Amino acid sequence: MVVVRPFNAIRPNETYVSKIATLPYDVLNSSEAATLAKDNPYSYLHIDKAEIDLPSDISAYDKRVYQKAAENLSLFLKKGWLQKEEHPMLYLYQLTMNGRSQTGIVACTSIQDYEAGKIKKHEYTRPEKEVDRINHIDACDANTSPIFLTYRKEDTIQALMDQWKAQHHPLYHFTSFHDVTHQVWGIDDPAVIQTISQTFDTQVPALYIADGHHRTESAVKVGQKRHEEFPEAGKDAAFNFFLSVIFPKEDLEILDYNRVLKVPIPENFFQQLEKSFIIKKVEEGKPAKAKTFGLYLKGEWYALFVKEALIPNDPVEQLDVSLLQKIVFESIFSITDIRNDQRIDFVGGIRGMGELENLVDSGEWTLAFSVFPTTMDDLLSVADAGQIMPPKSTWFEPKLLSGLFLHDLESNKK
């Protein structure tokens, strides 16, 4: 079972919350972040992507960037824009987009549980991305953004969440990027906190990383480093835990994560496809069911239906993204390293089929493939099997905003 515990959150003063909270660091480049934070001194991007406050010729990974992040965090605290909670609490964070809501528990989860495989992953991480957040967390001495976790819904926890929301006013209630409404409730009743924590400890066997594998690895490695630096601190030291938002999987929706290629088209392209697919010309490219792909080429959409005999039982190999990779990208175009091959790129489903059409019609890309979304059950099955999904298998919306919660590692108190 898993540890979920309250913490003394660093969070925005209610007056400034809508100005502070912003998109997460890993969906923005430095230029986009600078534009977004322009004329907004409250933006959390001054902490999360502090290179925007330094000369443009300084690398985003220069040590001065992380020093600046720590300075800006101290400044936000000094000015009272961010404030640290006096008592440990849990929080509920609800995001509503297009009439659909998801509510998670904001808490600290255990590095020891991650090491023991009770917090399960489904992606590999890249060392250079880990190093960036390791340096950021280390310099700020805080988990500066949460990990997006999920679990199979548990009735007692769900009932307590629903009851708390119904009986209490939210701390924050505002609408931000992409018209997503964000609400946060603080759970300060020790009995309710204890019940939630005990129920996770006795009824929830595992948590799963939905999004944030690099942040998880980085948070864990900084915590391990602190443990070595302060061996006498004890198992309850703040740095032995990391900041998470934990949603029941039934609340979550994975959007499609589509692909565009820049490749020469073989003369017998459709003949090669017909070995594995039943092909139909269609008006609209969004697949209606699993094991179906949309192909956009020369202004036309085609539906590609995978022949049933080619669908394996393995939880990873049967994924739509795996089938497309093996049958088309590897077999026809010899694209094997999709992380680094410049002939392929990825387009989040929130941008729609029109974006795929625009990218191909512009001549920037040759053809596009739309993909039926990976399901939450797929994600959990792969993680339970101890396997790894192909890169770019999932796109979650809405995004958790950064700047709403930080977790102080409290190393300066050891």
Layout of strands and helices, then pairs:
Layout lengths: L3 E2 L3 E4 L4 H4 L9 H8 L7 H4 L14 H17 L2 E3 L5 E8 L2 E11 H5 L3 E2 L6 H14 L1 E2 L3 E5 L3 H13 L4 E5 L3 E8 L2 H14 L3 E5 L1 H17 L11 E8 L5 E2 L1 E5 L7 H6 L2 E6 L9 E6 L2 E7 L13 H11 L13 E5 L3 H10 L5 E5 L4 H9 L10 E2 L9 E3 L6
Q: Strand portion, in percent?
A: 25-35%
Helix content: 25-40%
In total, the number of strands is 21
Largest sheet: 9 strands, mixed
What oligomeric state do these chains adopt? single chain
Mean pLDDT score, rounded? 95
Q: How large is the count of helical segments?
A: 13
Rg: 22 Å
Termini Cα gap: 29 Å
Low-pLDDT stretches:
none
> How would you classify the helix and strand content by structural class?
alpha+beta
Q: What's the domain count?
A: 2
Overall morphology? globular
Describe the structure.
InterPro entries: UCP033563. This is DUF1015 domain-containing protein. It comes from Enterococcus phoeniculicola ATCC BAA-412. This protein has 414 residues and is α+β, with helices and mostly antiparallel strands. It has two domains: 267 residues, no CATH class; 143 residues, Conserved hypothetical protein from pyrococcus furiosus pfu- 392566-001, domain 2 (2-Layer Sandwich). Helices cover 32% and strands 25% of the residues. Strands 1, 4, 5, 6, 8, 9, 10, 11 and 12 form a nine-stranded mixed sheet that branches. Strands 15-17-16-19-14-18 form a six-stranded antiparallel sheet, with helices on both faces. The protein has a four-stranded antiparallel sheet with strand order 3-2-21-7. Helix 4 runs parallel beside helix 6 and helix 6 crosses helix 9. The protein is globular. The two termini are 29 Å apart.
